[in-house]
Amino acid sequence: MQNYRWASLIGIIAIGFVGAAFGADEDLEKELEKLNVRPIRHASSPDKHIYGALFTDGQHKAGDFQKSVPLLKKLKKLAYLYTADVDFTDQDLAAVAQLSTLEDIKIPSPNVTDKGILQLKSLKKLTSLNVPQSKVTEAGARALMKELPALKEVEIANNQTVKRK
User: Is 2 helix (H, G, I), strand (E, B) or coil?
Assistant: First the structure.
């Protein structure tokens, strides 16, 4: 029987299929859960691959994200990365930059800076970056947009959204 779970995240609700694991992602799902990472599946997707990863519940500390990167890199369809209540830093963004399939990232952390987001310039599929509560400025967001033609918008502090001109 399939279990459907709602995973909520500061202003975002992701519907994920997190029941029994399927196919190549089965072992990875178990390993991610050991690291307190909640895999996100699309309930309507026929292939049942993991498409997203949710880091939440205040159990993660600076550097913990980096431990999950080798597992996340094995997820060939990973498109979404969301964090909440996680002490995320510019150093963690360097690890995020290794996840080349990401399209959408949400990291509300006061430790993320302009210098940090520029490390994401290798993510050619990235279309949306949401870094509220960060130290990212409009200038930093625009600098990243110059590097990433697919990046349509960056949400920065004070609910300000920087859109491609």
Answer: coil
Q: Does the model's pTM come out above 0.70?
A: yes
Was domain 4-163 assigned CATH 3.40.50.720?
Answer: no
DSSP-assigned states of every residue in 62-123: TTHHHHHHHHHTT-TT--EEEESS----HHHHHHHTT-TT--EEE---TT--HHHHGGGGG-
CA distance 3 to 135: 38
Q: Which amino acid is at 48?
A: K
Specify whether the CB–CB gap between 131 and 109 falls below 8 A: yes
Ramachandran quadrant class, 48 (left: phi over 0; alpha: psi -120 to 50; beta: rest) = left
Domain locations in the chain? 4-163
Q: What tens digit of pLDDT does each residue of 107-143 get?
A: 988 999 999 999 999 999 999 999 999 999 999 999 9
Amino acid at 24: A
Give the model confidence (pLDDT) of 35-65 as tens digits: 777 777 766 656 667 777 777 656 666 566 7
Please, are residues 95 and 71 in contact by the beta-carbon 8 Å criterion?
Answer: no
